[in-house]
Amino acid sequence: QVQLVESGGGLVQPGGSLRLSCAASGSLTIVYAMGWYRQAPGKQRELVAKVTRGGSTDYADSVKGRFTISRDNAKNTVYLQMNSLKPEDTALYYCNVDVLVSAFRGDYWGQGTQVTVSS
């Protein structure tokens, strides 16, 4: 089994910053990628940012230049530094891991951490 532990969400004012963390644990053979998705009420879940084991990154257009994803492969941990936050960034943020476990590859999700941007 794979367990993801997320932290770092909270309430901030527009223009503020937050740093999200997600640590994956379990019988992880190979972690191909880790990333962050978000879902606001009434909207589809969308990719925010992801990073592969090799270091390639991908960002949603709406967060480019403001958010930075990074990872520590040795710790199976991914971080999302969020700067210049806007009210439209308000959502439940989910950690995701693309992982090989006991010769089976699949996606696993965290429980979500709330980010609220409001004055």
Element layout with pairings:
Elements lengths: L1 E6 L2 E3 L5 E9 L3 E10 L6 E7 L4 E3 L7 E6 L4 E6 L8 E11 L2 E6 L3 E5 L2
Parallel strand pairs: 2-11
Antiparallel strand pairs: 1-3, 3-8, 4-5, 4-9, 5-6, 7-8, 9-10, 9-11
Description:
The chain has strands at 2-7, 10-12, 18-26, 30-39, 46-52, 57-59, 67-72, 77-82, 91-101, 104-109, 113-117. It has 119 residues and is mainly β. The strands form 2 sheets. Strands 2, 4, 5, 6, 9, 10 and 11 form a 7-stranded mixed beta sheet that branches. Strands 1-3-8-7 form a 4-stranded antiparallel beta sheet, with no helix packed on it. Strand 7 (67-72) and strand 8 form a beta hairpin. The model has no long low-confidence stretch (mean pLDDT 94).
Give a short overview:
The chain has 119 residues and is mainly β.
Intertermini distance: 40 Å
- Please tally the β strands and state the result: 11
Q: What percent strand?
A: over 45%
Nearest-angstrom radius of gyration? 14 Å
Task: Give the low-pLDDT segments.
Answer: none
Helix content: under 10%
Query: What is the ordering of alpha helices and beta strands?
Result: EEEEEEEEEEE
Estimated structural class? mainly beta
Continuous helix count: 0
